[in-house]
Amino acid sequence: MFMSHQVAELVAKCLQARDMAYCPYSQFPVGAAILTSGGAIITGCNVENASYGLTVCAERTAIQRAVAEGHRSFTAIAVTCDIKDSFVGPCGACRQVLMEFGTEWDIYLTKPDGSYKKTSLRELLPLAFSPAHLAEDGN
Ligand SMILES: O=c1ccn([C@H]2C[C@H](O)[C@@H](CO)O2)c(=O)[nH]1
Ligand SMILES: [Zn+2]
């Protein structure tokens, strides 16, 4: 388990990360912040492209960055966009990519005011396909 002050920091970092979003086509900024098991926080934002389908979501930007920096064990991710009235979950592609690194980490859906709802991959991606279904573990 981890401490509530770490959740507060994670939430603050995902809100900051949203400000870095490169989203000239959708004007829909998204921020993500991942807490590693070692206590590091790695952030990401969505990065769009003139060839629209090449856009990468904030959550996947964060996880690719975390893995590239040597992290594979995660405790939590906080995600935010500009929608004020509801808690918004990651897209399906991001749910699958998060699943690659286990189901035991917490997901904090965060509103612009910093309020959040805690959920999980088990809730967001039931009956999922996961690395455990493969004969090899993908190392
Ligand atoms: O989970 C999601 C869903 C969407 N987006 C981004 C992609 C695109 O840049 C913009 C509008 O879809 O929001 C994310 O970053 N994460
Ligand atoms: Zn996504």
Q: What key attributes describe this structure?
A:
alpha+beta; five-stranded mixed β-sheet; 22% strand; binds 2'-deoxyuridine; binds zinc ion
Write down how many β-strands occur, each being a DSSP E stretch of 2 or more residues. Answer: 5
Shape: globular
Structural class: alpha+beta
Percent helix, as a range, is 25-40%
Proportion of residues in extended strands: 15-25%
Mean pLDDT across all amino acids: 95
Rg, rounded, reads 14 Å
Order of helices and strands: HEEHEHEEH
Strand order of the largest sheet: 2-1-3-4-5
Please summarize the sheet with the most strands. 5 strands, mixed
**How many distinct helices?**
4
> Poorly predicted ranges (pLDDT <50, ≥5 residues)?
none
End-to-end Cα distance:
26 Å
Ligand list: 2'-deoxyuridine, zinc ion
Describe the structure.
The chain is an alpha+beta fold and 139 residues long. The protein is built from 4 helices and 5 strands; from the N terminus they run αββαβαββα. A hairpin with a 5-residue loop joins β4 and β5 (116-120). It starts with a helix and ends in a 15-residue tail after the last helix. The site of zinc ion (ZN) has 6 residues, from α3.
Per-chain topology:
Blueprint: H1 4-18, E1 30-36, E2 41-45, H2 58-68, E3 74-81, H3 92-99, E4 106-110, E5 116-120, H4 121-124
Parallel strand pairs: 3-4
Antiparallel strand pairs: 1-2, 1-3, 4-5
Zinc ion is lined by residues 57, 59, 90-91, 93-94.
